[in-house]
Every structure is written in C-alpha cells, then in structure tokens.
Design brief:
Helix content of chain A: 40-55%
CATH topology of chain A: TIM Barrel
Strand order of the largest sheet of chain A: 1-2-3-4-7-8-9-11
Radius of gyration of chain B: 17 Å
Number of strands of chain A: 11
Oligomer: heterodimer
Largest sheet of chain B: 15 strands, mixed
Helix content of chain B: under 10%
Order of helices and strands of chain B: EEEEEHEEEEEEEEEHE
Distance between the termini of chain A: 19 Å
Distance between the termini of chain B: 32 Å
Strand content of chain B: over 45%
CATH superfamily of chain A: Luciferase-like domain
Strand content of chain A: 15-25%
Number of domains of chain A: 1
Structural class of chain B: mainly beta
Radius of gyration of chain A: 19 Å
Number of helices of chain B: 2
Shape of chain B: globular
Number of helices of chain A: 12
Structural class of chain A: alpha/beta
Largest interface: A-B, 27 and 28 residues
Order of helices and strands of chain A: EHEHEHEHHEEEHEHEHHHEHEH
Number of strands of chain B: 15
C-alpha cells in the first residue's frame, strides 16, 4: 500500500504579514520530512479565490520547491483544473513537463474540473461546460507529451501544429489521475485508463463497490495514454501514542476541514446544471461525520488515533481494494507543526512497515 | 475561521422585525405556486453588514430575489417578493431575508403574524412571456424598487431545482430578536433555467443601502406545490447556531 501527504495550503484569518509564507514553509518542511520517512506521494491542490480554505493557486511553483528539497517522494500535481480559461491545456502540459524534469521524473498529474462557483465564475467559466473541457484536456495531454508536433481543433481549445516543449522525462509520460468525488466519475476514470484519486473521506461500503466497478471497467478501457490502474483515497491523519489524544486532534482536524469547506459556494448550489449532479465534497463529509462510528464516536474509515487503530482502519481500506491513501495532516493551522512531525514519524515507524512487506526500509530520516 | 455578520439587530424596529404574534403551529399548503428566483453575486463591501453575527457570508457574497406567486390556498392569493443574502449557518447553506414585499395585505398580515416575514405592502407582479419571465416590485409613488427577469428559459429536470432553506429575524413576545428557519417543502411540477437580468435595484428602498449587484449567476422559475411549514426552531442572532438552537412549538414559543 502506498501512502502520501497532501496539502491545501489553508491560511486562517487574520492574514497577517508573513502568515501565508509560514504556511508554505511549514508545508514544505513536513513534505520534506515525509520524503525522508518513506512516504510515497506529496500532493498539492490547485484552488483559486477560496478564502482561508486554500491559498494554493500556483501549485506547480510550490511543488517545484518541494521537488528540489526532496529526493525520492513522488510529486503529485493535483488536482489541476482542466478548464482552458483557467489552465490552457498546452500550459498544463508544459508546466507538468518542467516539473517532471526538475523532479527527476517523479511527477504524477491529477486532473479535475473544480466544483466551486467561486473558482469557475471567477474565470468566466459556465459550470455546465466543465466536464467536456476536462475530457478534451485529458485526451490531449498524453499526445502533447509524446508527439513531436501536436495540433487540435476542438470545443475546449484549438491550436495549430506546434512542438509542445519540453517533454517530460518519464516514459511515455507522467501517470495521470482524475479526482473522483461524485458517483460515476470512477467510471470516467476507468474508461480512459486513468488512476482514481478518491476525494471522499471515510465510508467503506460505498467505496468498496465503486472500486470493484472501476477494476472491472478499466480492463475494457480506451486509454488516453499510458494506463494507470490505481485507486487512491484521501483521509485525515493524526497518529499519536495516546489513542484518546490522536482521535481528539484528528476529529478536530476533520471538523475544522468540514466547517471551512462548507463555506464554499458549490457550482451545484449556484446553478441547476446537470454537469454537477451532487453538491460535491460537502454532503459526503457531513454524511460521513454523522455516520455511526466506533465506541469512541470516531467515524468509520478515518485514520486517526494510535498506531493500532490506524492500522486496523488501513487494513479495512486495503481489503476494499485501495492501493494508496493520501493524508491531510492539517487545515487552518489547527495542528502545530511539531505535532504533525511527530505524527508522521510515529506513522512511519509503527504503521507503514506493516504495509511494506518486501520493500526496503526508508533510510533518509530517523523514524 | 470564516467571517461573521455585523448587523446590529438592536436598531431594527418592528417594521423590519415584526412580532411573531401567532406563530405557525401547523403547515400551510400553497398549491401550484410559481417561484421565480434571480441570483447575483453582490459587492464585497456589503458582505457582512446585513447578516447577523451568527451567520457567515458566502464566498463570494451572493443575493437572491425570489418571487412567490400563489393563486389559491389557505392564505389566499398573493405575490411575495423577498430579497435574501446567501449565507452559512454553521456548516449549513442558508439564505437570510433582508427585505420582502407583498401585494395582498390580508395575506401579508398572516405572513407577518404566523411566520414573522416582514412583508411590506407593495405592488408586486410576475409576468410570463415566451422568452422571459419578468418581475417587478413597485413603490407607492409608482417608482420601481426592483425590476428583473429570467431570460431565455430552458426546461430542466425538476429534480435539478434546489432551494436553500431560508432564515429571517423575528421578535419574540419577550422582545428578544431571534432567527427562525422556514424551509418550504416543494413538490416540483416544472422547472426552467435561464439568465438573470436586473436593470433596476433600489437597495436603499430595501433597507440595504450600499448593496450592489455584481455578477449574474442564475435564474430559475418553477411550478410547485409548496408547503409553508410550522415554525420549529429558532436560534440566537449572535451565537453559533448549533450552540443556541431552541425548539419552538405550541402552546408557547419555546420549550
């Protein structure tokens, strides 16, 4: 099983001078530690205008800094918003290729289309059009990376024949993923041979069924590029020797994330477009946070608590068919940086080895 | 954490916050009603001043004009226009009533006494054309407080129509001001989606000077059987809703 860390770069008010820089520097520090401890992925989201929730509008620049500070961890550029008014497809291909070069071929690219009115309207995008924009973009990227010359005449964008440069150094190209939030998007991932990057937190039953469908469907896919058959999910994580403390800090982290994300204005809330059949992340979060939990009231599926509890939860995810879990360690700076570091160290020492049979132990940092 | 409203409810009179004289203890059915909603972003400069401290403004700040046309039902025929601001009550998506106008004073008295809507008598009209649905609120002097329209209606599945639950201020018998929620139940029959236009919007006449329209968002017109529910909960104007919610119901207002 693979493990990753993803950062939102959320910055709580008041936005004092230096506050954003501190969040950026802290995040780079704990992604660097994650690399030394043997974590597999460092993901950074792309968002625009989402006050407090995420000040990560140029993740490729952030990840370039992370790439230069790390040696082994894969660099997760995602979710890149595949909407031409926000990111022209050529620019996605170019920036990703540069990031692949500067990371020494460690790049993964997560694709999506944004689920907020705040972002889409900010760039003049009609939410009804985003699904076709995304589809056209993910079909174009592998060609831009692998063909000497590329041209396109489409709905989302058109361009004359040009050499899209530079080319990524991974052969044939960096693995491609798609963010899966709404039911049915896992089918879009499978049909195109893309990895499924689940953005819901917790909830075994529903996801087990969706993963099984994905596995079956991808066998008959018409791939847009190199097939990336992987299912990763996202989870909150706080690991502590003291189970009570770990679950308390973790639940506070989850509650804060749910609260701040509920302030966003979803595309579905703003317009009655069928392109967004659900309200996105928020209802899932609310449903899961109210789901029956264990004797301590911890919702099922959350990787918070002591190493034994987290191991049990991850074993359950493994049995559902999940190949990897990416952890959200902080939001709104609610967890002190030193607690994140100790949580990462404890996880790497007590939990990670149980899922790494046959793999060499990390050597970079003292765990 | 998110911004909170800064509205000083203490300065609001009974014209803005009517006394809940006869709180709705039972539902009221409004069969085959028409609801036109015109949504816009509004200016950041006014994103907190018309919301009480218990509520967070949406990001970006949004406003919604809704026009409810009722031809029949237990309150009688009326057309109610309401100006609401998009907001969050804790985790929950809500809208908050800033101003409302009604064309039938008999119905208006019931709406004020039973649900606490500050429905001001005015000329309110909704007119449906082939390619647009127009709405207007007229002041007694004949000028327009608001003129708006849904343009180029396109049918959408009724299931695509969503309405966020609505909040407004009411004055309790002990003169405290609290927030109540009226979340109508709707059985949709038809829905059309279009582009909103609003050439006239007199914010000052709505008690919200400085509120300015920005980006048009969406327009929706639906026909639905609507049930205005009995009032069930209230919460404080200056505390997080989850901490101050109280159940309402007969025979008293709170228990």
């Amino acid at each position: 099983m693979k493990f990753g860390v993803f950062v939102e770069l959320s910055v709580p008010r008041p936005w004092t001078p230096g506050a954003e820089r501190e969040v950026y520097e802290n995040s780079i520090r704990y992604l660097k530690l994650a690399d030394e401890l043997g974590f597999d992925y460092a993901w950074c989201v792309e968002h625009h205008f989402l006050e407090e929730y995420s000040h990560s509008s140029a993740p490729d620049l952030f990840l370039c800094a992370v790439a230069r500070e790390t040696k082994r961890i894969r660099i997760g550029h995602g979710i890149v918003i595949c909407v031409p008014q926000i990111n022209p497809p050529v620019r996605i291909a170019e920036r990703a290729a540069v990031l692949d070069i500067l990371s020494g071929g460690r790049l993964d690219v997560g694709t999506g289309r944004s689920s907020t009115w705040t972002e889409l309207a900010g760039f003049g995008v009609d939410p009804a059009d985003t699904k076709k924009y995304w589809d056209e973009t993910v079909r174009a990227l592998p060609k831009m990376w692998t063909q000497e010359y590329y041209s396109h005449d489409g709905t989302a964008f058109s361009m004359p024949e040009r050499a899209v440069l530079p080319k990524p150094i991974q052969d044939p190209h960096p693995p491609l993923w798609v963010a899966v939030t709404s039911p049915g998007t896992e089918l879009d991932a499978a049909d195109r041979g893309l990895g499924s990057l689940g953005l819901t937190f917790g909830g075994f039953g529903e996801q087990e069924e969706r993963i099984a469908t994905y596995r079956k469907r991808i066998q008959q896919c018409d791939p847009v590029g190199a097939v990336n058959e992987q299912v990763h999910t996202v989870n909150f994580m706080h690991c502590s020797e003291d189970d009570e403390r770990g679950t308390r800090v973790g639940q506070r982290l989850a509650a804060t994330f749910s609260y701040i994300s509920s302030q966003l204005l979803s595309a579905r809330e703003a317009t009655p477009t069928p392109a967004y059949p659900s309200l996105g992340l928020l209802p899932q979060l609310r449903r899961e946070s109210g789901a029956p939990g264990d004797e301590k009231g911890v919702p099922e599926g959350l990787t918070i608590g002591d190493p034994d509890r987290i191991t049990r939860v991850l074993r359950r995810w493994e049995s559902c068919g999940v190949d990897g879990v990416n952890f959200l360690m902080n939001t709104m700076e609610r967890v002190p940086h030193e607690d994140i570091e100790s949580s990462l160290r404890l996880f790497a020492r007590e939990v990670m080895p149980k899922f790494r049979t046959g793999e060499p132990a990390p050597t970079g940092a003292e765990v | 954490m998110p911004l909170n409203g800064t509205l000083d409810v203490a300065v609001l009179g009974t014209d803005r916050v009517p006394t809940l004289a006869d709180p709705a203890a039972t539902d009221a059915t409004l069969p085959d009603a028409e609801i036109l909603t015109l949504s816009f972003e509004h200016n950041h400069a006014a994103h907190t001043e018309y919301l009480p401290a218990a509520l967070h403004p949406t990001v970006p700040p949004t406003l919604h004009w809704s026009f409810l046309v009722v031809d029949d039902g237990e309150i009688g025929p009326f057309t109610l226009a309401q100006l609401r601001l998009g907001c969050r009550a804790g985790y929950r998506a809500r809208s908050f009533l800033v101003a409302s106008f009604v064309d039938n004073e008999v119905a208006g008295q019931q709406l004020r006494a039973r649900w606490g809507f500050h429905a001001v008598p005015a000329e309110v009209s909704v007119r449906r054309f082939y390619d647009r649905v127009e709405a207007r609120v007229g002041a007694p002097d004949g000028t327009s407080i608001v003129e708006g329209a849904l343009v180029d209606p396109m049918p959408v599945a009724p299931s695509a129509a969503t309405f966020t639950a609505a909040l407004h201020l009411v004055r309790m018998p002990d003169d405290t001001v609290r927030i109540v929620q009226v979340d109508p139940e709707m059985q949709f029959r038809q829905a059309d989606y279009g582009r909103p236009e609003m050439p006239t919007f007199d914010a000052a006449a709505c008690g919200a000077p400085g509120l300015e329209l920005r980006l048009p968002m969406a327009a929706l017109v639906v026909r639905a059987d609507v049930v205005l529910p009995a009032l069930k909960y209230s919460f404080a104007v200056d505390e997080p809703p989850q901490r101050s919610v109280q159940r309402m119901g007969p025979p008293g207002l709170e228990r």
